[in-house]
Amino acid sequence: MERAVVTATAERSAASGAAPAGRPSGPGAGRGRRMRRAAQPYLHLAPALAAVLLTTVYPLVSALVTSFRHWRLNESTAPGGFVGFEQYQRAFQDDTFFNSVMVTLWFTFVSVVLSVGIGLAIALILNRRGPLNGLTKALLILPFAVAPALKGFSWRFMMNPDHGVYDKMIDSVLPFAADVNWLGEPFWAQMVLVLTEVWGWAPLIALMLLGGLASVPPEVNEAARVDGATAWQRFRHVTFPLLRPLLLIVIFLKAVFSLKLFDQVVTITGGGPGRATETLNFYAYTQGFTFLDIGYASAVSWILVVVLGVIAAGYLVAMNRQEAK
Questions:
Q1: Is-cis flag, bond preceding 245, omega within 30?
Q2: Beta-ladder partners of 82
Q3: Residues 227, 209 contacting (CB under 8 angstroms)
Q4: Of 252, 251, 259, 256, whose CA–CA distance to 103 is shortest?
Q5: DSSP secondary structure letters along 54-119
Q6: pLDDT tens-digit map of 32-83
Q7: Out of 71, 83, 297, 304, which could bridge 287 as a Cys pair, Cβ 3.0 to 4.6 Å?
């Protein structure tokens, strides 16, 4: 009986345009509902935003503050007083720091060029129909799936001049390279690091570019073929311009990952021989956790953050210009 009365009341309220009993009505109630609807997306994003703030933004801000303070763990477990830009001035007057910058830039340039070039070549080959294309595409993901530390230890073992598998294979194909100590000579140690990056990244880049090639309308290539364009002309004037936005993304991603190279340096070369493979990230690590100079290590780390920020800004400018065309 009571339920029937409530239902009848609700029906009368609906007929008269009033809000049901028990619910607020009027302009204030409508504004409240609109505010709740507007807040829903932010509430859904809140957990992810909190995770980013705690795990990324807070450590970055903390490192920035530490970079302006004197703090050596072998002197005190707490940060010392503010020293202004002294740590940054020290970095730019340090030859070892500049050596790590040059090693990082050389490694980034060579690994990006080789990884993207080889990845593009693999993508163009696999874009043609073949009996083993499906299996090859599935196998391409395997190198990237290997953990960086495991990849580094494996390459260090395989390039060992006494019992390494790759060293034996190279010696059998190139006998004049039998006396090369791959990890004991500066140039070859750098090249081994580049090869590990190319081995891991080129297949992944090939898969990414294959997705881009699949989006190129076949009619455009067919029209160019009918007009008498060669394969190189079709790639240069048709495929490459359509693939350029994706290539920019790939180059940006690869450059960022190359600039912060760390795992392979630790597991393969340890920064040596000498300082031939000491990247900027590894240099910051040794200053902080070997020499316990946390303040200086934070300053070096923030220099790397600024470099990555400049590259990101350049990428955004390039993408905006690309979209404006």
A1: no
A2: 69
A3: no
A4: 259
A5: IIIIHHHHHHHHHHTB--BTTT-SS---B-TTHHHHHHHT-HHHHHHHHHHHHHHHHHHHHHHHHH
A6: 888 888 888 888 889 999 998 998 899 999 999 999 999 888 888 888 888 8
A7: 297
